[in-house]
């Protein structure tokens, strides 16, 4: 039996999974690692911790395998935008990984956005917005704030990568400096029309081209991993959200998935069209497989699973995240409590890095159930914001397939269907991100011929929308509260505090 190894490197943990050639999971291993928050809006991780977590999970799944000689290929999927720069001689990062959620470059981004010609140029070339979320301003910050970094970069001594590149460099015996086209499209440096690193963007962000990896197809040959006496070729790489799109077999125009992991990301395939949005949605590359480039439109929510972790770890409302389901009010009733889920700002469609999370409406009889339900409501409300933006721009939304850890919470899934007034489908295999990387690796290795061979065949659990007047009223109240918070945040930012 042919097998596929997949590395799924996420924001708070790394996983290694072995699939058979029917894409069933044979065995898996997961290792968490710590994030650090040095300042307000800063989010970092130790690059060695990430790498070691991947190596440990690889050791575990290989040790659990009866035989590794039948593992024919490896796929990698990774948290996107997170930025690491390392010394080419030592392979060591010169600064901690700046995680995608990090907002330290918001002032610089705001200064660029003051020039509409510049911001429009960036969006036209990349499909993205000028925002701290993406890699370019993170690279610039490291080069400008780490002693000697810019001089080393100019001397061709440093390499930049999103996490896929860092893993390929450290795990492949060839020490390849490569990235796939989907990860490149999230850097704010890649022209998604001409499909190349863009000189205008490199000049704008003052980044030498020598630090950048070579961009290849999602199903390219990325190098070989040596595990014991066995060599496994890496034949598939995708950013995590694009990987989930492939994992959910969203290959036709309008096919949409939503992944609820650390953050939440809605993505719809637009085939060969670069979808230009006026509502804060992003255009991005969905994949390049068998020479075909497909595009997608995306809405990003920065905090999803992190909210549940916060309720668990900081508020100690429950011991395990799965226990949160028992506290959710099925109809979304919260005793008028509202929550803005903005630990690190708001993504689409507001794109405001300065807003912070907060509850409103706490009274003496506010309960634990109210807090937890308000948190889950807020994710549904934000999802609804993105769906409304997509519909207003002419995308037909027939239904939504969801995956990620929160997709195992059926009470949340029904609440999501009701609040968004959208039918929800949950595939039997909710590990869509890892599955997508396995599918692309199978194509890259020749194990599978083409994407038409990858249609879903394992069924799903479906939730029909049943929106009530309560759901509509709660959303309207939340939206009014959000408008107030946006104004308040702007006013507070402009206050000149004196000692």
CATH superfamily of the domain at 3-238: ATPase, nucleotide binding domain
Low-confidence stretches: none
* Euclidean distance between termini CA atoms: 71 Å
Reading off the top of the CATH hierarchy, the class of the domain at 3-238 is best stated as Alpha Beta
Secondary structure: number of strands: 23
Rounded mean pLDDT is 90
> What structural class do helix, strand and pairing data support?
alpha+beta
Looking at the structure, the CATH topology of the domain at 3-238 is Nucleotidyltransferase, domain 5
Please estimate the helix content.
Answer: 25-40%
Relative strand content: 15-25%
Based on the coordinates given, report the CATH architecture of the domain at 3-238: 2-Layer Sandwich
Rounded Rg: 22 Å
Q: In DSSP terms, counting alpha (H) and pi (I) runs of 4 or more, how many helices?
A: 14
Biggest sheet: strands side by side, in what order?
Answer: 17-18-16-15-21-22-23
Quaternary structure state of the chains depicted: single chain
Main beta sheet, described? 7 strands, mixed
What does this structure look like?
- This protein has 499 residues and is an alpha+beta fold.
- It has a domain at 3-238: ATPase, nucleotide binding domain (Nucleotidyltransferase, domain 5, 2-Layer Sandwich).
- It has helices spanning 47-64, 106-113, 116-126, 135-145, 149-154, 163-171, 181-184, 199-205, 240-247, 305-313, 368-392, 410-420, 432-445, 469-494; strands at residues 3-9, 13-20, 25-32, 44-45, 71-78, 84-87, 97-98, 158-161, 178-180, 190-191, 196-197, 214-216, 223-227, 230-239, 256-260, 264-271, 282-289, 292-301, 338-340, 358-360, 400-403, 424-427, 460-463.
- The strands form 7 sheets. It has a 7-stranded mixed sheet, sandwiched between helices. A 6-stranded mixed sheet has the order 3-2-1-5-14-13, sandwiched between helices. It has a two-stranded antiparallel sheet with strand order 4-7.
- Helix 9 packs across helix 13.
